[in-house]
Each structure stands twice: as C-alpha cells, then as structure tokens.
Amino acid sequence: MATAVSTPASTPAAPEENSTQVVVLDAALLVRDECNAREHDTEPDEKLITSVKEIGVEEPISVRPRSDGTYGVFKGWRRAQAAQVANATAEAEGRPVRPVKAYVREDLIGRDGWTRFLSLVENDHREGMSERDTLRAQELALIDMSEVDRRTATKALGVGRNAARQAKAAQKPDDATLRRAAAGGMDLEQTAQLAEVQDVRGAENRLLRALRRDHEEGGGGRGHWDQEMALLKAEQADAAARAKAVEELKTAGIPLLGTVGYGQKDPSRPLAELTTGLGAPLTEDNHKGCPGHSARLDEEHRPVWHCADPAAHGHKVRPKPKQPKTEERARTVACNRAWKAAAGPRQEFVKRLVRGKTLPEEAWQFAQRILLDLPRFYGKWADRQRTETLALLLEALGQADNGSYQLSEVEQQAVASHRPDADGDGDASTEADSDASADA
After folding, report:
1. Distance between CA atoms of 167 and 180, rounded to whole angstroms?
2. Which residue, 223, 222, 167, 243, is CA-closest to 409?
3. Any bridge partners for residue 316, and if so which?
C-alpha cells in the first residue's frame, strides 16, 4: 500500500524534500538502496527494535522507487529493518502491522552519485548524542508526559518507572565520569546511584569493579553491585556524621585538635588522664573554662574532651592513665559498619524471595528464622550456632537466582572457615572479628 499523507504546514520539510510528499509504505516493500552510504553497522539494535515495536517509526525515511515495485532505502535503513522485525512479531501475535512513513524521491532515479551524497550527509549527522544530552532529553521528555504516554515511553526506552528522577540525578557527575560509566556498562539506574555516592573516595572505580564481577558471572544479577553500594552509602553516612560533629564543635567554639606530625610531640591529653592541681577529676563541665579546653573525635565521631596543654594550665597527669586500644577499636568499628551495610541487601533479597511465587522449603525455613524477632536468649544462640549455615544457604539461593545476591566481604570472611574446602582448624582472627561485631 502507498497512501499519501499531507505534511503539516507548520512543519518545514527538509531542503531536498521540499516538493516531496510523505507517503505511507508497506514495510515489506522496503530494501536497502545500493547507494546507501552506511555499509557497516547496518543492523538495528535491540533498543531501536523495542522502540519501534512500541511506537512505530516516527521520522519518515527516504527511498527511491525501483523497477521491481520495491523501494530502496538510502536514509533510515536501520529504522526500516526495525519496522520489519516489529511487523513480523505483530503478525505472529495476531496484531495489526504498522506501515512506514517515507519521502519517495522519484527525482533521484538514475542519480546514484547524488543519492549516495545525501545518504552520507544523513549518516554523518546522526552521530551518537553525548551521555549528558541523552540523560537531559530523557528527563525533560518523561516529565512532560501524561501517565499513559510515560508508561509507553519508558517501555520503548527500556527504562524503569522512575526514569525521569533517575535521569535528573544521573546528570550530577561530570562529562568524563558519565562517559566512563556508559563505557563500563552502567544503566540509567546505576548511573543515578553512582551520582548519589560520587563524593566517597574511589566510589566510581569500586562500582565499576563490582559491575564487572556481576557481568563476568553472567545471569543478569547485580549482587556485587548492591553490596558495594550498601558499603559506599554506609561510608558516606559515616563521613556525614563526622562532618556534623565537627560543625557542632565549631559552633560551640571548641577547638578540634589535629593530627600531630611525624617526630613532633603532642602536649595534649584526654581529660580522663588528668586531674586538677589538687587531684580532683577533670570533666567536660569543670574544664570548660580552661584555655586549653578542646576535643578529638573517636571512631564513632563522639567528642573526647582534651586539654591542649595540661602542663601550661596547671593540670596533673594521673599516675596510671588507661591507654585506649585505638587500633583494635578502629577495626571493630569498621567491621560493625560493614555488617550493618550488608544487612540492607540481605534483607531486600529475603523479602523478594518471600514475595515470589515459588520458594524452596529450605528457603522458607531460612526466611522464618531471619525475619522473626527472636528473644535475646534464643537470638544470641542462633547467631553463634547458625549464622554460617544460614549465610551459605543465602549465598546459594542468590547464585541460583542469577547472581542477584552476593555475600559482602565481611560476610565472606565470617564463613570462609566453614566452606567445604576450608581447613578444619578455621581462622581464629576471623572468628574474633565475628564475635566482636556481634557483641558490639
């Protein structure tokens, strides 16, 4: 079929098509013109096919009539092929096929050189948009749509229902970061998540490594990505808590003591190690008036009150000050933060398993144990006796679900000595970390 359709007066035609009407052609009559300048990468990709299946070919293609009744496509051949694929699917499913709008250029019959030139200009102008322009276009287009149109558009674009919000968030990184994210295979949602944590040192490289691990394992899962994101968000929250604590000290006019350089002596002391000249304990309240009143922050960003120079302000050092185990404490705090971060992906995976239509019997038992709020007496026993078994079961379920869940690094360490190929003696240091984390 070839039905003429009037071009709207408000839409100017392309210069070489000023005198040519837009007609509607049967996609089955379209073939590649021998003068089409694109000779490589001529097949439509899945994204284009999905879009054409949903909304058809919006922009007219350009063709020349052929003696056998077909039409040679010299501009828009990839779109034409996508229409043919979409129509074949529609026919198989018993749905009506869509025609293709086209400029029929009878004036180009026999003008192979000029036809090839026009095709060259068309393909040269159709370079890929920048990542930022693509994100901006997606955001503005999806925002300015009705809900019905938005559902169709997001399906055609292959994005989720929150695509407009994600596209806006994903524009925060600089252009170089966006190019690396696209080259690394990040989708729209993942690029938006990168934008959330880009202020964490090394976030981009860590997420790209996690994404590569997910891709290498196949199955379409994102377990490594989810674990890395959870850890990055925990580190981000930790940094925000420290910034807040620093700001509160600044507002109160209390100096925050810095790090002492190598080879330099630190005259400051915590108040817990000091007394007044008469031997009375020093506290935050009775030390506030001292010119040396200051603070340092501990691993959880709580102020530890100090005197910047006890000797200069008449304080005495306690005979046997208690030395804090800073390295051991820092390690425990880091493990605790990692355990808390890993809880998010674990709980989301368990919830999704429970909501599923089918669930293995062992998974039901596991879900009941993990979701029930056990009394402390039973809970502590379950933690110590069953944690490793449950972790290994959860890992197996995640792998069976195309890698949608992966154990975090701290969880991997906890179960390492309980794997079938592990040494029987186990790892005492790992067990100590688990105990410290559970008791903290």
Report:
1. 16
2. 223
3. 275
